[in-house]
Write a structure and sequence with these properties.
- This protein is mainly β.
- About 0% of the residues lie in helices and about 40% in strands.
- Strands 1-4-3-2-5 form a 5-stranded antiparallel sheet.
- A hairpin with a 2-residue loop joins strand 9 and strand 10.
- The longest helix has 4 residues.
- The radius of gyration is 24 Å and the shape is elongated.
- The model has no long low-confidence stretch (mean pLDDT about 90).
Length: about 180
């Protein structure tokens, strides 16, 4: 049923080398502008138990419109990535397989982090309630980058300080608090 006449010189099939795969994915264009060529990436949920390492080879300069699952038109940009993990460590991965890609936009060593759920706006900046001798102490903080529920702490707290998560809007400086074990 698939046999039919073809023109001379027409391609009949395309062969690929599964040992030499690369990745293609797309991001919202507003996110893609923060990705630089050469950025590290992690490939997960590809079918194996390990994370695969990859590197961004190219961020396409032209965006395209895609309609999201919610029916919203989104401007997206395509990324092309090289898989760095050797082929023998990713058995079964093939052409056009579905994978999930996380691109590393920044990283640092020895960072102090604070949960975003402890942060709130105060006097044009950020603050937390630090726990000190059973009392909530309003503490202004300086934060840097934020990702995955955490914020980089640049100042205002010391390592080991306890903070209150999800503070009530009615909480005030000096309020008595009791630690809750979950």
């Amino acid at each position: 049923p698939s046999s039919r006449p073809v023109q001379p010189g027409a391609p009949l099939m395309e062969l690929g080398d599964l040992q030499d795969l690369d990745l293609e994915t797309d991001l919202l264009s507003a996110d893609a502008v923060r990705v630089s060529e050469g950025a590290e990436a992690l490939v997960e949920r590809w079918g194996g138990d390990t994370l695969l390492e990859a590197r961004v080879r190219r961020v396409e300069p032209a965006a395209f419109t895609r309609v999201s699952a919610l029916g919203i038109e989104e401007e997206r940009a395509r990324l092309r990535l090289d898989i760095l993990t050797p082929a023998d460590q990713r058995p079964g991965l093939g052409d056009r397989f579905r994978v999930f890609v996380r691109v590393v936009l920044w990283q640092g060593d020895d960072l102090l982090l604070v949960p975003q759920s402890a942060l709130f706006r105060q006097a044009g900046g950020w603050a937390v309630f630090r726990v000190e001798e059973g009392r909530a102490r309003l503490t202004p903080v300086q934060i840097g980058r934020q990702a995955e529920g955490m914020a980089e702490l640049l100042g205002g707290l010391a390592e080991g300080d306890s903070v209150i998560l999800y503070p009530a809007s009615s909480m005030g400086d000096g309020a008595a608090v009791v630690a809750r074990v979950q």
